[in-house]
Write a structure and sequence with these properties.
The chain is of the alpha/beta class. The chain contains three helices and nine strands; from the N terminus they run ββββββαβαβαβ. A six-stranded mixed β-sheet has the order 3-4-6-7-8-9.
Length: 175
């Protein structure tokens, strides 16, 4: 069991997340919050961390992809807290030679989806420390190296702890 500990003055609150209550798929992580001692999310809340790998960019029109993601998000509402985990940058895109065009598509999808999620009471995770360089990516320009994975997981953990323990809706808070 993992707990997120929060400090409100001197009172410590814990939110229990049991490994059996976590489901991971290609496009999401679903977490069932087993217990909650605050009312931020509440006992029995499902949290879905939705993510898109970016493999569809260039193959699928941006407008269509954006609408499909929004439709999927709306299908979970209102009984689930949605967290949008932004599409990460790359140096290589499968269906396009234009890096700048694909980065623009990535930004549009992230922006539109984050806007939808935030308007519906959800949360948004950004990864400012993951940049499209050899520092974070393997030679294929797509997959994260160990350091990139560590940054990704650390950011995800920090974001979930902050969302459970505070009213903030975007992580990191300021960019």
């Amino acid at each position: 069991m993992t707990t997120a500990s929060c400090r409100e003055g001197s009172n410590e609150t814990n939110h229990a997340i049991k490994i059996g209550n976590v489901e991971v798929t290609n496009h999401s992580i679903r977490i069932y919050l087993a217990s909650s001692k605050t009312d931020q999310l509440g006992r029995g809340t499902s949290i879905i961390v939705a993510r898109q790998s970016g493999n569809d960019l260039g193959r699928t029109k941006v407008g269509y992809l954006r609408n499909e993601i929004k439709s999927k998000i709306h299908s979970y509402l209102p009984n689930t807290s949605i967290v949008w985990s932004q599409i990460l940058p790359r140096t290589h895109w499968c269906y396009s030679e234009s890096h700048d065009c694909m980065m623009t598509c990535r930004l549009r999808i992230n922006s539109a989806t984050a806007s939808t999620v935030l308007k519906n009471g959800g949360h948004y995770i950004k990864y400012p420390d993951i940049v499209p360089t050899s520092t974070c990516l393997k030679e294929d320009g797509v997959h994260l190296i160990d350091l990139g994975n560590d940054i990704f997981m650390n950011t995800l953990q920090g974001a979930l702890e902050m969302f459970i323990c505070s009213v903030s809706s975007t992580y990191p808070d300021k960019l």
